[in-house]
Design brief:
12 helices, alpha/beta, 8 strands, TIM Barrel, 292 residues
Length: 292
């Protein structure tokens, strides 16, 4: 299977003037690799890709590819709700050094399941790299059902995985029950990654691993090896942090954590804003207790 273990949905750090902080980006990428993540996902939701212009996206992707220098695989996010524009975007994406394409379900226009199938088949037909489906109904307004995911998994060779962030373990279980042997089911939710792996999933594309790559990698590695006592202990140690990091949305929480750790500035682009001082203080207290 492709894209197994711990992936990290990398943030896009900004300077205080709002421009991309490439020095901080390289620092975070190296921090994640040193923490034993297996691959990096650039230009996803956590990377605030929706607020980056075309030149910034290209520069951020190149920075991540160059910094990884082949040490881990890189997956690039390309998403939108206009299929024709999506196909054109994929055609004009530089895939040098890129191992996979992560594409979120179309948002706002709320397509039927048949529309999702047509959308992804069009993307897969033009993509030069394997495609990971991304189902996150809390953001997009549409849930890609298990039946739809399985249709795409069985009918399209170039669709090799799904990042499932629906929060519905029964739906994820149905996908794993009916999938082809080489199709990966990846958690899109840090807190659900251990139970998903226990059910047969292949790991996580993690937000939290930006700041705590070793801790998330331990949860995935131990649960994948059926060492559930160790995996549970690692999960329990992180549960308060999981809750606080997402209390005021993503990537606001993880950017606060990265700032506390001295890895980047606590800057987001509107309409996103930093977490409140109260949440920041709680995060700082939790991180100090972890002795990171």
């Amino acid at each position: 299977m492709l894209f197994t273990g711990t992936g990290v949905a990398i943030v896009t750090p900004f300077k205080n003037d709002g421009t991309v902080d490439f020095e901080a980006l390289r620092r975070i990428v190296n921090h994640c690799i040193n923490g034993q993540v297996d691959y990096i996902v650039v230009l996803g939701t956590t990377g605030e890709s929706i607020t980056l212009n075309a030149n910034e996206k290209a520069d951020v992707a190149r920075c991540v590819v160059d910094t990884t220098a082949g040490r881990v695989q890189v997956v690039i996010g390309v998403g939108g709700n206009d299929t024709a524009k999506m196909v054109d975007a994929v055609k004009h994406t530089n895939f040098d050094g890129i191992s996979g394409l992560l594409s979120v379900t179309p948002y706002y226009n709320r397509p039927a399941q048949a529309g999702l199938i047509g959308h992804y088949k069009a993307i897969a037909a033009i993509s030069p790299v394997p495609v990971i489906l991304y189902n996150v109904p809390g953001r997009t307004g549409v849930n890609m059902t298990a039946e739809t995911t399985l249709t795409l998994a069985h009918e399209v060779d170039n669709i090799v995985a799904v990042k499932e962030a629906s929060g519905m373990l029964m739906q994820m279980t149905q996908i794993m029950k009916g999938r082809p042997d080489n199709f990966s089911v990846i958690s899109g939710d840090d807190a659900l990654s251990l139970p998903l792996v226990a059910l047969g999933g292949q790991g996580v594309i993690s937000v939290v691993a930006n700041a705590f790559p070793r801790e998330i990698s331990t949860i995935i590695r131990e649960s994948s090896a059926n060492n559930y006592t160790a995996a549970q202990a690692a999960q329990y140690a992180m549960c308060d942090l999981f809750e606080t990091l997402f209390a005021e949305g993503n990537p606001s929480g993880i950017k606060a954590a990265l700032n506390i750790l001295g890895l980047s500035q606590n800057v987001l682009r509107l309409p996103l804003v930093p977490v409140s001082q109260k949440t920041y203080d709680v995060l700082e207290s939790l991180i100090k207790k972890m002795k990171v």
